[in-house]
Amino acid sequence: MMDLESLRGRLIVSCQAYPGEPMRDPRTMAQLAQSAVIGGAAAVRVQGIADIQQTRSAVEVPVIGLWKDGHDGVFITPTLRHALACANAGAHVVAIDGTRRARPDGLSLEETIHGIHSASHALVMADCGSLDDALAAVGAGADLIGTTLAGYTGEREKTAGPDLQLLEQLSAAGMGCPIVAEGRISTPEQARHALDAGAFAVVVGTAITHPASITSWFVGALGAE
């Protein structure tokens, strides 16, 4: 089982591409992960079974794996079946929807986390949207708490950058497990602010690994259509 201390104060890079994009290929995502590790990433986060397998073979840092199925509601590794597939593909940590919403397979969050722990050596990262989500996820046995879904579940307003207020709330609540800042972190300064607000580690994805978005930011700044 991986040592979470290796992630303390460090950067995790999310290497994902949307369906239909030119870079939506497991080998490409693994190469992105390799590049991120060269730059100093302490871990990587990838989506899809093939991506997990390719990336696990390409890098020596911990791999956080997930499986997105759908687009609305609970779609980040939504069932125990999805989670175990990620673990079996080689994920050191399986990221799952960690909200209090009903899961498609009818299992509770606690049952899902217990199922992952019982059937694999993988840790569980609960992607949460609020303080109440996080408290429930910790009670259910999650090993890490992510702010991934803050602003996307209707419980909190979507902030322009990272939800620093939520990070401060989680830190003040004494969660008892690492808090990972994720979501809308676009600059090194925002990553630093997330750590200062109480994050154990910081995930950055789009601003590092999504050329289409990065390009559009520059195009927008130039006022081009």
TrEMBL record:
Signal peptide: none
UniProtKB keywords: Carbohydrate metabolism, Isomerase
Biological-process GO terms, alphabetical: carbohydrate metabolic process; N-acetylmannosamine catabolic process; N-acetylneuraminate catabolic process
SUPFAM superfamilies to which the protein is assigned, alphabetical: Ribulose-phoshate binding barrel (SSF51366)
Pathway assigned in UniProt: Amino-sugar metabolism; N-acetylneuraminate degradation; D-fructose 6-phosphate from N-acetylneuraminate: step 3/5
Annotated EC: 5.1.3.9
Gene3D superfamilies: Aldolase class I
Gene Ontology MF, one: N-acylglucosamine-6-phosphate 2-epimerase activity
Highest rank taxon of the organism: Bacteria
Catalytic reaction equation(s): an N-acyl-D-glucosamine 6-phosphate = an N-acyl-D-mannosamine 6-phosphate
InterPro entries, A to Z: Aldolase_TIM, NanE, RibuloseP-bd_barrel
Keyword field contains Isomerase: yes
One GO CC annotation: cytosol
Enzyme class, first EC level, given as a word: isomerase
Family named by the database record: Belongs to the NanE family.
Function: Converts N-acetylmannosamine-6-phosphate (ManNAc-6-P) to N-acetylglucosamine-6-phosphate (GlcNAc-6-P).
Cited PANTHER family: N-ACETYLMANNOSAMINE-6-PHOSPHATE 2-EPIMERASE-RELATED (PTHR36204)
Name the record gives this protein: Putative N-acetylmannosamine-6-phosphate 2-epimerase
Organism: Arthrobacter pigmenti
